[in-house]
Amino acid sequence: MRRLAVVASLLILPLAYGGAAAQDTALELGERIYVDKCEYCHGDGVQKGGTFVLEARYQGDLPGLLTERTNLTPEYITAVLRTWTNGMAAFRPTEITDSELEALIAYLTRNNE
Predict the structure, then answer these.
(1) pTM to 2 decimal places
(2) Which of 1, 24, 44, 59 has the fewest CB atoms within 10 Å of its CB?
(3) What is the C-alpha to C-alpha distance for residues 82 and 102, in angstroms, rounded to an integer?
(4) What is the CATH number of the domain that holds 36?
(5) Which domain holds residue 80?
(6) Rg (Cα) of the chain, in Å, rounded?
(7) Which of 91, 109, 87 minimizes the C-alpha distance to 30?
């Protein structure tokens, strides 16, 4: 039942998010949400604080750039996004809805092995 709700929300959500066309995929929607909500801190570049902190933390063992990671899980992404952790403020469901979170998860886990 939950899977059906997620699929239905991903079909309806593009109509509500930024006037996007209904044919957008979850990955395309997830990428737009990432660019809109996450890239400011987690984008590519020296001035991106989130990327800088993760690069320092991982010391080359993992990419600091989230879009290059291959080990992000839905549970981890949800926990970090919904809980204040190590300097990253949580996003409330009014800022990133559960449906948007599902699309963001699809985008951030697309490279997983």
Answers:
(1) 0.76
(2) 1
(3) 13
(4) 1.10.760.10
(5) 24-108
(6) 14
(7) 109
16: helix, strand or coil: helix
Backbone angles phi, psi at 85, to 5 degrees: -135, 130
**3 state SS of 63:** coil
Report which of 87, 104, 83 is spatially closest to residue 36, judged by C-alpha positions.
Answer: 104
Structure letter (DSSP) for residue 71: -
In a domain? residue 19: no
- 32 occurs within a structural domain: yes
Asked if 9 and 99 count as a contact pair (C-beta separation under 8 A), the reply is yes
Q: Give the span between the Cα atoms of 46 and 101, in whole angstroms.
A: 26
Backbone angles phi, psi at 96, to 5 degrees: -130, 110
- Kindly state the tokens that stand for 9: 């929300």
| Mean pLDDT within 75-94 | 91
Among 44, 46, 63, 45, CA closest to 55: 63
Q: How do residues 10-27 score in pLDDT, each as one tens digit?
A: 555 544 555 444 336 899
Do you know the residue count of the chain? 113
